[in-house]
């Protein structure tokens, strides 16, 4: 049985997350269809559209990328999907997921420089449960992937105190035995969700 933990609300500060300092990707990527200057120009347009919350423009620009929403946008290897998640635009993320060509679905498990996947980033918002549902439908393996801290998305959502998202992800492993659940509930350094809650003073 999955341990049910009542998570306190933890305010998320994007400045504390090294992956969220969005900077434009200025190095060559595996896409040979464009030279670096043109990629830089397109990345700048996507970034500007995200800043202006112009979702239609982001969608239009992504049509020019071979990998669509999985195009790497930042020097931290964040994709457009991840950047849209940081910007708290779940509807935009859902549309970008819908537009992904089937041939690129295997790349949904792509990790940025700190090891976070799209599910790790989705896990820090209670307003992105539908996004989490969709990405898991397309790439179920995301559930057990760890970032560089050894955290699964379930562990990460508990660290940020996102109760609704925690409950959603916890149900996904409710049928697993205790040994397999442990994979999701503790990091590689053996820190558990309860340990993290205590260290973060989430429990009085």
Keywords for this entry:
204 residues; mainly alpha; Serine Threonine Protein Phosphatase 5, Tetratricopeptide repeat; 10 helices; elongated
Quick description:
The protein has 204 residues and is mainly alpha-helical. The protein has 10 helices and no strands.
Folded structure, characterized:
The chain has one domain: Ankyrin repeat-containing domain (Serine Threonine Protein Phosphatase 5, Tetratricopeptide repeat, Alpha Horseshoe). The longest helix has 16 residues, at 36-51. The protein is mainly α and 204 residues long. The chain is built from ten helices and no strands. It has helices at residues 36-51, 55-62, 80-86, 90-99, 118-122, 129-138, 153-159, 163-172, 178-185, 193-199. Helix 1 packs antiparallel against helix 2 (55-62). The relative contact order is 0.14. InterPro entries: Ankyrin_rpt, Ankyrin_rpt-contain_sf. Pfam families: Ank_2 (PF12796).
Order of helices and strands: HHHHHHHHHH
* CATH topology term: Serine Threonine Protein Phosphatase 5, Tetratricopeptide repeat
Overall helicity: 40-55%
Rg (CA only): 17 Å
CATH class reads Mainly Alpha
**Secondary structure tally: strands:** 0
Average pLDDT confidence is 84
Total helices: the number is 10
Query: What count of structural domains?
Result: 1
> Could you tell me how far the N terminus lies from the C terminus, measured between alpha carbons in angstroms?
25 Å
InterPro entries: Ankyrin_rpt (IPR002110), Ankyrin_rpt-contain_sf (IPR036770)
